Amino acid sequence: MDADRLYREHSAALFRYLHRLCGDPELAADAVQETFLRLLDRPPGAEGVKAWLYRVGTNLVIERSRTSARRLRLLARSPDRAPRQEAPDDPETEMERAERQREVRRALDALPPRDRTVLLMRAEGFAHREIAEAVGGTTQSMGSILLRAYRKLAAQLNLNAGGPP
Amino acid sequence: MTHPQSHPPDEALLAWLEGEGTAADRRALRLHLRACGECRERARSLRSLARGVLGRIAELDDGPAGAFLPPTLAGVRARRRPGITRSRPPLRWAAALVALATTGAVLASPLPQRVREWLGGSAREPAQRTVPIPHSTPQTGGPIPRRPSQELRFVPERGEFRVEMPGPAAGSITLTRTEGTEAVFTVATAEPGVHPVLLLPDGIQVNHRGSAATDYTLALPPRVSLVRLRIGGRPEVLVRRAQIRPEGMRIPPGSSEPGP
């Protein structure tokens, strides 16, 4: 196993996913690093390394979010934590963009952790089997779990929910 | 023609849309969709649902991983210290400043008793201390260099606070808004990818909130009436509590006073 290569290939995407999951870039970065340290200490067996990385990272973020009351308080009062990359050219456009991001952040935060996890893993392009490995469950059950999560988020965002929730 | 009982459920349609299922299952469903307009319509609706949701998720602007992660696994390994849990950078820096304040980074001029209590230090201690803060790394453009350090000076005086960020971190500070007792600042620097960090004593909570354009939250206790900020060679900016308005304020470049 070439851990250096895995880090190069997956750390940025894992960070993006975990950041979206918890809304806290520092927590996400810590979890990414801890995940790769665990990879070095206890490399996974036959299962897919990528799915393993996401499963361990997810667990770390959830575990740390649960055990850190302070962090939760920060998250609760800072629903607009999505960071910006560039100074805005147009303040109005930037405000609109920021508001849309806050809306998505709030909607994600309102989902149960499992629904949030499956949606964000799907957004990263994971197959149902890999998501099932990460969150538990069967590949066959992922269709209904994902569908429910899609509909919940769509309802939060006032999107067309594609049928009854 | 199709029979209602043979219509695939929504979850099966979604799985099909997402490329799941065996080749045989996929073929069977494809054949069904060819014949069943109702299911085709449901599939279209589900595709729209999934695309809409994933599209909104993709709007989340995540910032560069490079600002938060070491560029290589060797960098992660180097951070590991047996028995020590890494703290998050802003908290670590804030802790350093708390320690600084605790040792009494106080000017020789008398401080109000309440300020000394707040700082928890002694007026006999040196007036200035320096705290290294790291830069973030550039996002692109070949190998990412090792992070240099930058000195940040903290000078409490007469109950006021001055944060200096010399060197390449010249930029601007924008107080974007207030939330209760928190003041949210955006700190933009002239050098791409540089993260200046505001360090303030215990009692002012600083949270790192962003990436290239960096947001910080300063929780100002009621007893704090003024904060002095300086970035690079720019004039010092005084931010008084009375000037912090819910709608926020902008400190114009080159100005020492907040704008209208």
Category by helix and strand content of chain A: mainly alpha
Tell me, rounded to a whole number, the average pLDDT of chain A: 79
Distance between the termini of chain A: 43 Å
User: What does the oligomeric state look like here?
Assistant: heterodimer
Residue runs with pLDDT of under 50 for 5 or more positions of chain B: 81-174, 176-182, 190-219, 230-235, 245-260
Write the element-wise H/E pattern of chain A from the N-terminal end onward.
Answer: HHHHHHHH
What's the mean pLDDT score of chain B? 53
Helix amount of chain A, in percent? over 70%
Biggest sheet statistics of chain B:
5 strands, mixed
Query: How does the overall form of chain A come out from the CA principal axes?
Result: globular
In spatial order, strands of the major sheet of chain B run 1-2-3-8-9
What portion of the residues of chain B fall into strands of 2 or more residues? 15-25%
How far apart lie the N and C ends of chain B? Answer: 70 Å
Count of discrete alpha- or pi-helical segments spanning 4 or more residues of chain A? 8
Quick recap:
Chain A has about 160 residues and is mainly alpha-helical. Chain A has eight helices and no strands.
